[in-house]
Each structure stands twice: as C-alpha cells, then as structure tokens.
Amino acid sequence: MAELKNIKDIEADFELAFKEFYQRLIGFAMVYVKDAHASEELVMDVFEKFWDCIHKTEIHSSTKAYLFKAVKNTCLNYIYKQKRYDSEKDVSILEDVNNSTHLQYEHDVQSQISEAIEALPDRCKEIFILSRIEGYKHKEIAEQLDIAPKTVEVQVRKASIILKEKLKEYAPALITWFLIS
User: Fold this and answer.
1) CATH top-level class for 7-88?
2) 156 contacts 138 by C-beta, under 8 angstroms
3) What is the mean pLDDT of residues 130-147?
4) Of the given ranges (2-11, 76-85, 91-100), which has the lowest mean pLDDT?
5) pLDDT of res. 173
6) Fold for domain 97-180?
7) Domain residue extents for the chain
C-alpha cells in the first residue's frame, strides 16, 4: 500500500499543478464554452474538486490527463445546462447591432478554425489536437501513439503551416484569441 502524503506534499503538488496548467486549461475550456469568464469559473471549479480529490483518493492517471479530462467534462456539462436553460426560456432579447456583429464575427472565426482543423489529414489532426488543444508534450504524444517524437514534431509543424494558410484572413482575431487564452 502506498504511503500517504503529508499535507505539505499535497499542497506543493497542487500548487505545481495550478501554476503549470491553469492558463492552458482556461484556453482549453474556451474551445468548448467560448466565454472567458465562464472558462475561468469552470477551471476554478475543477481545481476545487481536484483539491478535494487529492486529499481523499489517489489519482490513477497523470495529473495533466486528469485535469484536462475534468475540464472537458465540466465544460460539456456546462454547455448541456446552458442549452437546456436557453431552450426553456421563452424570452427574446434584442441585441444592439455592434454586439451582434461582433458575436457573428467571433462565431465565424471559431467556425473557420474548427473547419480548418477538421480538414487536416486524420493523423495530422489527431496529433495537432493532442499537442495544441489538449496540451500534451511531443514525447507524451509519441508514447501514446507509438510513433517517433520527430514524427509528432513534423505533423504539428505540417498542421501549423496548413492552418496558417487557411486562416490567414483571420490573423488579427486569432492573435487576440491566443493572447487571451
């Protein structure tokens, strides 16, 4: 049986995980909920649950995998609740033209990013998502997919070149998006 960690070790592990993954997890949540404030709230909820979890049980996967999976599930639950709430309310809200135009542009950019990623060759897309969206290191991806780390590097570079070309007209929006996340 594994020796139980003392509270200082648990706090150190938590602090390290928070520092290493917090910003990346917010960016990851943004892919799902497309709302910076909601993404921060959801990630904070995950870290609260993670804090409770590391005191009570042992995590059987890597901390990184655990946190990304928890954020994904939390985001999907949030989306489900939002859609349910939106479908139940029977109130129409008039938005001003500027806000509506901004939201439409944001939606178009997100749609173009999604389409561009979906258009990547299957293996290239899989590696790109693991690397750039889920935040895995090249070595981790190589081990997971049983391929050479150099292959991962080449595929990520290939995806970046393809996406850069397909999304060049959205460069200002993408720069802003990546700076926020």
Assistant:
1) mainly alpha
2) yes
3) 89
4) 91-100
5) 54
6) Arc Repressor Mutant, subunit A (1.10.10)
7) 7-88, 97-180
